[in-house]
Design a protein that fits this description.
By secondary structure, the chain is of the alpha+beta class. 25% of the residues lie in helices and 23% in strands. The longest helix is centred in the N-terminal third of the chain and has 21 residues, at 42-62. The radius of gyration is 30 Å and the shape is flat.
């Protein structure tokens, strides 16, 4: 059983939130909460709220009683809409300021393997038939400069210095 919790339109960039989420992915819930408590980032407080919500969802919706068995099996941050503002600058210019938002998703599961079994990998596609080996005589040597794509340097005409004749 996997339980999810989402926080949408959170005022932190997805890039900053991913730094925190990468630290807790795959850990047990107790270990993840301890990690978040001592992580000195603003996104850690927001991620902690979502993690506690996922644990509460597991308790309420799936009657999970032993919270020590829960593990963080999914932790992602998707980019949300940007709040666009204009900052006036010198000489009549205007700079755009983008206040980024994100959607945080955390999934917890009490299964040891991390949720539902994954589907089997698709069968590999058949490779192309082997090409017949060409005889060495039929292969042409590339022209000088053509195979490498480089141009040959041009000879420069030397000029006489001015004033001396």
């Amino acid at each position: 059983m996997q339980t999810m919790a989402r926080a949408r339109f959170v005022r932190v960039s997805a890039r900053k939130a991913r730094l925190v989420l990468d630290q807790i992915r795959g850990k047990s819930v107790g270990e993840a909460l301890a990690t978040l408590e001592y992580t000195p980032r603003a996104a850690a407080r927001l991620v902690e709220k979502v993690l506690r919500s996922a644990v509460a969802n597991a308790e309420h919706n799936h009657q999970v009683r032993n919270l020590d068995d829960l593990r963080v099996v999914r932790a992602i941050a998707d980019g949300g809409p940007m709040l666009k503002r204009i900052q006036p600058r010198a000489m009549g210019r205007a700079f755009a300021i983008k206040h980024r938002t994100s959607h945080l998703t955390i999934g917890v599961s009490d299964e040891t393997n991390g949720g539902a079994p994954r589907p089997a990998a698709p069968a590999p596609r058949p490779s192309a038939p082997p090409r017949a080996a060409e005889p060495a005589a039929s292969r042409r040597a590339p022209r000088r400069g053509a195979a490498t794509g480089r141009r040959q340097p041009r000879a420069r005409a030397r000029r006489k210095p001015k004033g001396k004749e």
